[in-house]
Amino acid sequence: MFLRHLPSLVMGCTLLTTGAAQAEFADLLAKVPRDSNLVVLVNAEKAFGSKVGVAEGWRQSYRSNSDQAPLRMPPEASEYVLAATIDLATLSPRRETAVARLESDLPMTVVARLTEGVADKIGGLEALAMPRGGYLVKFGPHEYGLTAPSDRQAASRWVREASGRARADLSPYLAEAAEYPDRVGTEFILALDLAGALGESAVRRALSGSKVLADGGVDLDDAARVLASVRGMTLGVRTTERVVGSLKFDFAEPVDAITTVAKPLLIEVLEEGGVAFEEAYDWAPGTAEKSVRISGEMSVASLRRLMSFLELDAAAIGQPQEGGESIATDPDYQAQQQATLDYFHGIEEHLHDLKREHGAKSYYSIGRWFEKYANRIDRMPILGVDPTVVDFGAHIVSQMRDCVEAIKGAGIQSGARGASVSSSSYYSSDDTGNSGNSLFGGGYGDQVDAVRGQESQRRAIRTEERAKSSTTVRGVVRQMQEDTSRMRRELTQKYQVEF
After folding, report:
1. CA 98 to CA 312: how far, in whole Å?
2. What is the Cα–Cα distance from 313 to 13, expressed in whole angstroms?
3. CB atoms within 10 A of CB 446
4. Is the pLDDT assigned to residue 7 strictly greater than 70?
5. Can you state the angle between helices 387-419 and 444-495, rounded to 10 degrees?
6. In the chain, N or C: fewer CB atoms in 10 Å?
7. Which residue, 189, 156, 175, is CA-closest to 42?
8. E strand map for 252-384
9. Within 13 Å, how many C-alpha atoms sit on residue 75's CB side?
């Protein structure tokens, strides 16, 4: 379906406070690149201070194990903004930029020691070339920026523009998203600008296969007109006594034509995008004049799944320990034990997420999740981690990418074999002697039967190739589970703590 990639890209987060804190957020937003189509803002103080955050110890757990968090922001951040330019065709970020305000004003010499960055100067500001790619810049007291990939010219342009801009230069949709929490008090917003991304004729062609629209008796032309006018997509999350989410699509046209199928249509979009999360099936639907939404309780695991398409890892910025030393530079045995424990549990948490079957109705979208989670594990910090466990992590990543190749291979094979099934016109003659290619008479029924037979063969081929790759994937997953259990036993014995 035409929206298969869109839910995967709903990735801007906004946690705003009131009063002076909002003005401080404005300073961070002013440093967001103007061509961003995705924006993320996080007020960690408000989230950590919420009733559910205090009850579940979010602050302590994030500082000790940020690898398992949905978004890899600095553990010491009080406010955090992430923006990206996303390629909607591939779901990959072309460039990501983060700006954070930390509780501590760390000198860049300390940050360099924590991150193993190489000192530089960009636009007159202290900077670091990061070991895993990208550039870190200190804009002022407590304020740091990170941009990736490693393109020094692009980083220089960003610093120059950000330093000379007093206010944000966002698209209309993202600007609205940045204001929304201020109006209604939402702590967490994910927003993606989709204006102009879809053509009505292409939407109509894609919608022709929608089971939801067919079952709901929705007029295809009306639905195409509405969906092609999509402005953007937003996920809002409140953190009070519990975590409650609301996923919303906004349109330029009234949504009357699709109101009756709002929830199943959104679920279909999530499923085909491979990002349907467990709670979404139980969320309640709602509509406004030009928007549709579903709302309900949400888990951290679901949020992590949605956020996995963002690749920038800013967690390494500023992780001061007692005495000003980082875990990675502390020679104490207990430090390595904790770093190894956190790394191993981070791998386990990602593997656990992949066991969830929700959103896997589109088989080939499963490969997308294996690939994204492999990338997340590959980017996890390894400073201070037991080398044996680092090797284990690399082994798991390799196995996950084997699954990706098996799933992709099934698509290639079924496509090649399906193309070999003849789709030429079928000619025959009936017992009256009429040729089958005439407008009337014998042969027409046979031609229809032949076409149906060809499609039946193609479906059988797709099923067969999928079954083959599924067997391969299940075997690899089983091996990963066995390897993880073995590594847990070895680590528990070595460190004498329960892994």
Report:
1. 8
2. 15
3. 15
4. no
5. 170
6. C
7. 189
8. 284-288, 291-297
9. 19
- Residue with tokens 């509405």, as numbered in its chain: 226
Q: Which of 22, 63, 284 is nearest to 168 (CA)?
A: 22
Q: Extract the tokens encoding 158.
A: 């960003």
What rounded mean pLDDT belongs to the chain?
76
DSSP string for residues in 296-312: EE--HHHHHHHHTT---
pLDDT class of 493 with cuts at 50, 70, 90:
confident
Digit-coded pLDDT (tens) for 190-218: 899 999 999 999 989 888 888 899 889 99
Q: Give how far the C-alpha of residue 351 lies from the chain's centroid of Cα atoms, to the nearest Å.
A: 16
HSE at residue 19, side-chain half, CA atoms within 13 A, is 1
pTM for the model: 0.68
Taking only the tens place, the pLDDT of each residue in 95-114 is 999 998 888 888 898 888 87
Average the pLDDT over each of 35-44, 74-83, 149-158 and give the range with the smallest value. Answer: 74-83
What the block records as the tokens of 208 is 């022709």
User: Comparing 207 with 44, which gets the higher pLDDT?
Assistant: 207
Helix (H, G, I), strand (E, B) or coil at 460: helix
Query: What is the rounded CA–CA span in Å between residue 126 and residue 136?
Result: 8
CA distance 43 to 25: 9
SS3 state at 426: coil
